[in-house]
Amino acid sequence: MRSSVGLAASLLLSMAMTQVYASSRNTEPIDQEAIQAMEAKISQAEPRYQCFLYARLVDQVTEVSVKQYAAGDVKKATGLLKKVQQLAQKIERTVTRKDKRLKNAELLLHNTSFRLTQLLHSSSYPDREVVAQTLAQVNQAERKALIQVFGN
Q1: How far is CA 107 from the centre of its chain?
Q2: Which pLDDT score is estimated for 129?
Q3: Are 63 and 115 spatial neighbours (Cβ–Cβ below 8 Å)?
Q4: CA distance 135 to 23
């Protein structure tokens, strides 16, 4: 009986957290100038906050890229995915154990990885290479963040 109550409570909590996460997403369109402005702000932020801020930007740019693919604008979507690759490399360079909100950054990267996996399965054959490269880069950044979260 206790296990079923605990299971039901955890299920409700996870559903509520998913709704909060989904409703907290920034759905405003993002363009190259906005990305550059955010990158400039991130580079001026304290180093211990940069990893999370880059992860948030990766998540936002990925979502816009997914929407671009859905709308049929493959050229813009591919350009955004290449930008995600560059941002993921910056995450790898900036992640340290002393980062604030490191676990949140890792979760954002995990969710981004999930979205990219979905995109990989739904994309056409010619587009899969850039999606697969982006997924690999995000997974690598996520692994590095995860090592820092649970490292000694």
Answers
A1: 8
A2: 93
A3: yes
A4: 24
pLDDT tier, 102 (very low <50, low <70, confident <90, very high otherwise): confident
Report CA torsion sign: 7, 8, 13, 18: positive
Of 94, 81, 110, 78, residue with least CA distance to 148: 94
Handedness of CA 99, 19, 143, 10 (dihedral sign): positive
What is the overall mean pLDDT for the chain? 81
The two tokens of residue 99 are: 């980062």
| Crossing angle of helices 47-71 and 102-122, rounded to 10° | 20
The candidate with the shortest Cα–Cα distance to 111, out of 139, 86, 85, 145, is 139
- Report the predicted TM-score, pTM, of the whole model to 2 decimal places: 0.76
Whether residue 69 contacts residue 126, with contact meaning beta carbons closer than 8 Å, is answered with no
Q: Phi and psi (nearest 5°) for 13?
A: -65, -45
Contacts of 45 (CB under 8 A, 6+ apart): 53
Dihedral in degrees, nearest 10, Cα atoms 151, 41, 130, 94: -20
Sign of the four-CA dihedral 13, 21, 105, 70 = positive
Half-sphere exposure of 21 (CA within 13 A, CB side): 14
**pLDDT score, position 55:** 93
